[in-house]
Amino acid sequence: MFSVPPLMTAYYPHDDFDAVVNYIKGLQFRTNTKKCQDNSKSIDTFVLKNNILRNLNEFIEDCVKEYADKIFITDQKLHVTQSWVNRNQIGQEHHYHYHPNSVLSGVFFLQSSGKTVAPIKFLNTRNDAFHLEFKKDNRQPFNEYTNSSYEYPSQPRVLVLFPSYIPHCVPMNTGIDRYSLSFNTFPTGSFGSKIGLTYTSPEKT
Fold this sequence. Notes:
This protein has helices at residues 17-25, 54-70, and strands at 8-11, 29-31, 40-42, 78-88, 94-97, 104-111, 120-123, 149-152, 158-163, 168-170, 178-187. It is α+β, with helices and mostly antiparallel strands and 205 residues long. It has one domain (8-187): Jelly Rolls. The strands form two sheets. A seven-stranded antiparallel sheet has the order 1-9-6-11-4-3-2. A four-stranded antiparallel sheet has the order 5-10-7-8, with no helix packed on it. The radius of gyration is 19 Å and the shape is globular. 25% of the residues are buried.
């Protein structure tokens, strides 16, 4: 049958990770005045263009290319559009949302501390016609077919890629300040099929 494209994770191997974290912490952040418990975001929304993040940007581009090749089965290049940093202090969360105008999104974890720092949580939007009762003797009834949501822990140096249309959130943080870098992607140049009537191009044809 079919399934939702999976998460892809990758570990950042370079030695400049501490320098990256220090740079990120020095950014200016904007708080959400409408939601007092919501996290804050960097004023700079193109952070990956900074030269100090050059290795990280190349690492992300390579991972995006691998996802497109292995999961989407395409040679179409996806490039990073916007990139920004989220800061979740103690008692802060980030509401459920998805990323419009993006094909593939990613989160790179910069600072966390074990189980007390909030994970990223994905929501299953599938609408089942019937809700069947789980077996009473089954201690672990939830799996990839029955999950209503899925959490992935915040682990420093780890990149998580996922389709941009999947709703996700960050539950309330109870540990140290949680820093993560998020980004969106979009196809480079024209894409789609002229024969299939799905062709589009940033330029007039």
